[in-house]
Design a protein that fits this description.
By secondary structure, the chain is α+β, with helices and mostly antiparallel strands. About 25% of the residues lie in helices and about 25% in strands. It has helices spanning about 100-110, 140-155, 180-185, 215-245; strands spanning about 30-35, 45-50, 50-65, 75-85, 125-135, 160-170, 170-175, 190-195, 200-205. The termini are far apart. The structure holds uridine-5'-diphosphate.
């Protein structure tokens, strides 16, 4: 077990142009999704994206607590994103910090457009997300996990929502930035986490940390949409796998 943080490599691209982990600029890290992993939740998903391990449990639509949050004309979506104390190199405080509150809000905003919340007045859909291991891009993988957990509940949705980031490192645009890549550039890499509604051909989240030109922005949008499609295929596969093997009528 190393006592010192892992040192960063001198270059981030190999001589043949591939990335440190062997990926091409437009390749996702390994992505595996399982749904229905929590017996006691109405819907659930486990997302293994690179070394990220993220689990989401969804409940509802159910009564709102505290009741004053209930809305008589629509349902609400409440997301709780938390990082386990052991999920990062340096122990994370178990007390929810500002970052966790921000990501909870952001994931909620990314998912809301695909739900028919107006059909469930006075109720809430609650999604609890726990990051077990963080490897960069946890907010995107959390969007992926939350969308799958809600779909696993079996409520109607307009679309799935796929989370994926695109970045610019050493002036090159790459899909699905890993933690090591994100930390490599001194002063911080340009990172753009995005949530894609593939069938609607729309984005429900787009954050940008860093500076890019308009041309680079357009290139990044195209690349991240293609990445979203790959994530979406894995989401569909996971849902199909569960529902095509489950005993119907039990
Ligand atoms: N991180 C950490 N401690 C924290 C929060 C984040 O070490 O309390 C690290 C962790 O490796 C995570 C990375 O920072 O994967 C990136 O965090 P960021 O805020 O960029 O969000 P993310 O990319 O995970 O969506």
């Amino acid at each position: 077990m190393p006592l010192l943080p892992e040192s960063l490599p001198e270059t981030i691209f190999k001589d043949d142009g591939t990335r440190l982990d062997g990926r091409k600029f437009n390749e996702l890290r390994d992505l595996h999704i399982e749904v229905g992993v929590l017996k006691n939740a109405d819907g659930s998903a486990l997302v293994c994206h690179g070394k990220n391990r993220i689990i989401a449990g969804a409940y509802g639509p159910r009564e709102v607590h505290p009741r004053h949050l209930a809305k008589s004309d629509t349902g609400i979506l409440q997301i709780s994103y938390r990082m386990a104390t052991f999920s990062v190199g340096e122990r994370k405080s178990p007390v929810p910090g500002r970052r966790e509150k921000e990501i909870s809000m952001v994931v909620g905003k990314a998912i809301e457009p695909v739900l028919f919340l107006e059909q469930y007045p006075n109720t809430t859909i609650d999604v609890f997300i726990t990051v077990l291991t963080a490897d960069g891009g946890t907010r995107c993988a959390s969007v992926t996990a939350a969308a799958c957990a809600i779909a696993d509940m079996g409520i109607p949705m307009k679309d799935l929502v796929a989370g994926v980031a695109v970045g610019k490192i050493a002036n090159r645009i790459i899909l699905d930035v890993s933690d090591k890549e994100d930390k490599w550039e001194k002063g911080g890499a340009t990172d753009m986490p995005v949530a894609v509604m593939v069938n609607q051909k729309q984005y429900s989240l787009l954050q940008l940390d860093g500076s890019i030109t308009v041309e680079q922005f357009e290139e990044m949008l195209d690349l991240v949409f293609e990445g979203g499609k790959l994530v979406y295929e894995k989401q569909k596969e996971a849902l199909r796998r569960k529902y095509s093997t489950e005993d119907v009528g039990r």
